[in-house]
Amino acid sequence: MTDPQLVLTERVQQALAAAFGAEYSDADPLIRPSQFADYQANVAMSLSKRLRRAPREVAQEIADRLTAESAFPGTVEVSGPGFLNITLDDSWIAGQAAEILADPRTGVAAASAPQTVVIDYSAPNAAKEMHVGHLRTTIVGDALVRVHEHLGNKVVRQNHLGDWGTPFGMLIEHLLDIGEEAAVAQLEAGEGNEYYQAARVKFDSDPEFNKRARARVVTLQAEEPETMRLWHLFMDATVRYFNKVYHRLGVTLTDEDIAGESMYNAMLSQVCDELQDRGIAVVSDGALCVFPPGYTGREGQPLPFMIRKSDGGYGYATTDMATIRYRVQDLKADRILYVIGATQALHMSMLFDSARIAGWLPDHVRAEHVQIGSVLGSDGKMFKTRSGKSIKLLELLDEADVRAAAVIADREYDDAARAEIAHAVGMGAVKYADLSVSHDSEYVFDFDRMLALTGNTGPYLQYATARIRSIFRRGGVAPAEATGPIVLGHPAERALALRLLGFGAAVEEMAEGSAPHKVATFLFETASAFTAFYENCPVLKEGVDEATRASRLALCALTLRVLETGLDLLGVPVPERM
Fold first, then answer.
1. Structural contact between residues 105 and 215, judged by C-beta atoms closer than 8 angstroms
2. What pLDDT is stored for residue 1 in this prediction?
């Protein structure tokens, strides 16, 4: 139940040690899929200079060692100047596929040493509304949560809401002006931007309101009971709106995962005092700063990481230093993933280096910035409405449902089933379009492309699973009852089975590199291989013998398991029918 590339890597390394000595056993065999065989190993080319022998001679020596081993699962041929072309035996591929089919984990090994993984994602600003810019941090973060939980790691979700600071003075005063009931209704309706803008206009134009707002900040920071009641009223309404978005998207965040800026308020002065007392932070132009080495400004001057402003206020750097200390010391994190916009790369790098200097981020803890690229419109600019405003996330999701309903309009379903399928297709299209590209890349938001039933899209993968289920319904067999044995005859059967063997490795690669697009790519290639299989290898057609039928049903069952498991790890819903 192992990825063929890993099996071949181990075998080639054993052959290297046997042929040239133990010091060569850790050389990378450079094994890649090949158009001339199943895989090609190019290690002879890279080792020839070191061994002072011709590449083809080195390759032949490795091939001889490999084929001398009776258990080697295929054939080896030396080609060109020294390439090793490796073709796996059909029986070995079939045997491995049968093992994965019998494995409840579908070939995905659980972590041998489970870790505590803290994942910081979504993190909208409570003073404003969720917009399309929050889509990627939420979707990517949720996929990473799902894969680490599937591997058996202890996952701690952290929704680091922007729920504290000076803007809340004017937001609370505006709440009092319009009345608690009206404020709650507006916030629950997702009109946070309108609410904020109205408060801001008064703050900038009304001296009396400005004075009240500034005084309210003082009582907020002092956690005066009535101010805290009003703050909770504001936050509870805002979180209820956020939860509507999370429910629509099908992400796993709950209220228990909220760890906003307010949570760290009591720690900030202690953070500053400790860093200053230890000489790690120094006063520069009235502000308290850490100067991690290697960062310079435009004129070559050291770049400060400001943890306390010259007016005594705290900023993002202060809260983030308190946060990373808490996650390491209190949550006992082994790995921390910050799913945050790519534009914050400098800030995150300085944060990690400053925390290391302070000893709050020890070497055994991996802190990683999972950089999130921008969502663009068809004009290649930031995705906005025609009037230049940010697009509200709930409105975007509503449109996805409407457009998805149009895609399946010709299907004969009742209204309830049609709405359920349309929602699954709409959310799957939006989420998969995001996850199928590298998280640090920009991508163009295009409903027509996202909802296409062909190509690398969510609906294409959803349709592949629906097609497989229809095979089992027509055959009167449950997928769990399709156990084979698997025998590979047609090239399309072999190609599909070989592809399925790589699922475990794709999942591990996603977790290790925080790269959901690795699993997305694997699933698309799997669905494409199944399409070729479906078109060339009849399963239920009259004239197909029982052994072939049983084998092909087993391949269908394994493909369905892989697609369903993989899509679930990405958070993409899979409707029963399409």
1. no
2. 52
